[in-house]
Design brief:
The protein is built from 11 helices and 24 strands. With 463 residues, the protein is an alpha+beta fold. It has 2 domains: 359 residues, Penicillin V Acylase, Chain A (4-Layer Sandwich); 73 residues, Immunoglobulin-like (Sandwich), CATH 2.60.40.1930. The strands form 4 sheets. A 9-stranded mixed sheet has the order 2-3-6-7-8-9-10-11-12, covered by helices on one side. Strands 4, 5, 13, 14, 15, 16 and 17 form a 7-stranded antiparallel sheet that branches.
Length: 463
């Protein structure tokens, strides 16, 4: 039905400019031809609009992730239907994330009409992260970082995530700027992920997940930890950060847990901790900074139930040399962590004022290091919807053998038939479309998109 509506709109007007409804823009990108690498995207508006923009801008990647996930589920001896049935038993928080799932599905389908994704397909891929993450994390504040220029420095090293999805070689740093008063936040994930394995919000709180084991019986209505992590980052907007940890734990403690492990909730200046969770007890206990860990001015997490009285590997030696003299630094935490599936370091100064570093693994190496100043990136005034649509030209039109397409550099060009099926894809600028043998006469639509816009033009093929 959705594809039919799109085609009817195309038939009413010969040029369809879609950028006004895509409330997002890709502001940095470095990808190989295999789409290994990273993208940084800003998304703003209500939760449906942010989801729609995410889906529209990453349509091929998200659709491929769903197709990969379906194959893996079949390989494991289950069916996609069985997985969706299990997911339907989960608690879904925050409530707004349902709108984001629907927005992503709609954005993918509008950008790639042949995809036919549902919100449940998107939800299923988002919940893959609930099953396999082993990590190390550390956070320092007060006297331990007194020479750094930051109030708090936190680093997260994601060690393991081999879930068999090629899509996870495309790391996405997604900046969410909601208009409902909830905190802005950054998700370090993959195309279409709005649940969280590593994230940071406008208060400088870093939330992340550790460990996995599947013991215990899964309770009906359990809250997946990737949703709990996202929920924790976005549920509290109080300026008093000293109350954030207690507010988050009080809320999460009311839920059963789908997956066991530990969730870091590193609020700056030592106000955070580690939330323990398992299937038997739910989100059941908080480990706060230990007074013996550099006088309570550092906290460390690995994949076991530790006391937190010391900082462990890979930072143990580094801290033993530099913490007492106040010389813990961003570069020190970052470098000592070493490359991993992804690595994030946050240097926090004050609310909405922090420096963020990121890199992620790709086959054969790691991405370039991404550096973001929050105050220069999140909430900036210049947005894609205020820019002019790109100038394109398709000629001759009608045509009988081939038509030329002039489009901005870095454009992706899709050729669609009247039913909304994509029949060919081109890339670059000043291209030529020569329909292959067997393509019938008729009306076709050329969709030209770059990270900020999508413009559709009708052409008529008369051989």
């Amino acid at each position: 039905m959705k594809n039919s509506k799109i085609v009817l709109v195309f038939l009413v007007i010969s040029i369809c400019v879609c950028f006004a409804q895509v409330q997002g823009e890709i502001i940095q990108r470095e990808l190989t031809p295999d789409r290994y690498g990273y993208s940084v995207v800003r998304l703003w508006g209500n939760h449906y609009e942010m989801g729609y923009a995410f889906g529209y801008l990453f349509a091929d990647d998200i659709n491929n992730a769903v197709l990969e996930a379906r194959e893996l589920v079949d390989h494991w001896g289950y069916s996609w239907t069985e997985l969706l049935f299990l997911i339907a038993t989960y608690s879904i928080k925050p409530d707004s994330i349902e709108s984001e799932f629907q927005g992503i599905a709609d954005g993918v389908n509008d950008s790639l009409p042949s995809a036919g994704l549902t919100a449940n397909d998107v939800k299923a891929v988002n919940l893959y992260g609930d099953i396999a993450y082993l990590c190390r994390s550390v956070s320092s504040w007060g006297s331990t970082v007194s020479s750094s220029g930051f109030s708090t420095i936190s680093t997260r090293r994601l060690d393991y995530s081999d879930l068999g999805l090629e899509a996870q070689n495309h790391h996405v740093i997604a900046i969410f700027e909601p208009n409902d008063g909830s905190p802005a936040w950054i998700n370090f994930g993959w195309p279409g992920y709005v649940t969280c394995v590593t994230g940071v919000n406008e208060f400088g709180t870093m939330a992340s997940l550790h460990d996995y084991y599947g013991g215990g019986e899964l309770a009906m209505g359990a809250l997946p930890r990737v949703m709990a992590c996202r929920y924790a980052l976005t549920m509290v907007a109080d300026w008093d950060m000293s109350c954030h940890m207690d507010s988050v734990f009080e809320e999460l403690n009311t839920y059963d847990c789908a997956t066991a492990g530990f969730m870091n909730y590193f609020v700056p200046d030592g106000y955070g901790g580690v939330i323990k969770h398992n299937r038997s007890l739910g989100y059941y206990e908080v480990r706060k900074p230990h007074p013996d860990c550099f006088f309570g001015e550092a906290i460390y997490t690995n994949n076991s139930d530790i006391s937190g009285a010391s900082v462990g590997e890979p930072w143990a030696s580094y801290y033993s040399v530099y913490a007492s003299s106040g010389d813990i630094s961003m570069s020190g935490q970052w470098g000592t962590a070493g490359p991993s599936f992804h690595r994030v370091t946050v240097g926090y100064r004050s609310r909405n004022d922090m420096l963020i570093w990121f890199d992620g693994s790709i086959p054969g190496g790691v991405t370039s290091t991404v550096e973001l100043e929050w105050s220069e990136t999140v909430g900036i005034d210049e947005i894609a919807t205020n820019r002019k649509a790109p100038t394109i030209r398709v000629y001759p039109n009608p045509f009988n053998s081939a038509c030329k397409i002039d489009a901005p550099a870095n454009s992706v060009i899709g050729i669609y038939d009247i039913k909304g099926n994509r029949i060919e894809r081109l890339s670059g600028s000043q291209l030529e479309w020569e329909p292959f043998e067997g393509i019938p006469n008729g009306v076709y639509f050329i969709s030209i998109s770059n990270p900020e816009y999508s413009v559709c033009q009708k052409v008529i093929y008369m051989k």
